[in-house]
Amino acid sequence: AQSVTQLGSHVSVSEGALVLLRCNYSSSVPPYLFWYVQYPNQGLQLLLKYTSAATLVKGINGFEAEFKKSETSFHLTKPSAHMSDAAEYFCAVSDRTSNTGKLIFGQGTTLQVKP
Amino acid sequence: NAGVTQTPKFRVLKTGQSMTLLCAQDMNHEYMYWYRQDPGMGLRLIHYSVGEGTTAKGEVPDGYNVSRLKKQNFLLGLESAAPSQTSVYFCASNKYRDSSYEQYFGPGTRLTVT
Lengths: 115, 114
What we know:
The complex is a heterodimer. Chain A is 0% helix and 55% strand.
């Protein structure tokens, strides 16, 4: 069975600092991988996804993530945090052998950006 | 396009009451999903549908029923609400029969059961 683990339920950075949100997955076959962002009192919005093209994936708002098969990881980074990045971030996986599109989510990481 | 909409936005129920949450999408998407979001647990799939007239159980289906009579609508029902069903409920849809495509989420329904 697939699973997703996000290390750190809360991450706090200063404005302008590097953002690193960690995601590890467990799957017998490398899955499709997604990062979603949720701003307060809103639904989820796709940041980026990995579907087995380039292992370094660029998304919206300056975020990127790198798929590392050997480490079963898909960590999210942004070189310089902005106050508007404060939100909850979810890593999710989807089974590439299934056509149901079901997502399995990690527990979420709340990003706090300090001025 | 309105995208994915959910009705209502907020609801308070007493234990044992019933209610139906409505999800509508105007993007002609095939697949639709209901999730619940609880603190520290991410989103968990309740039920999903791969097309009009079809539904299937997700990870946490107990206490919920669903129906997809029309392609654009996906209803989530609680027959006898329990405090454990206090949560934020999200509906999502996916255009293609391909798990590599993103899901589009509604704004959520915050349900409190007292």
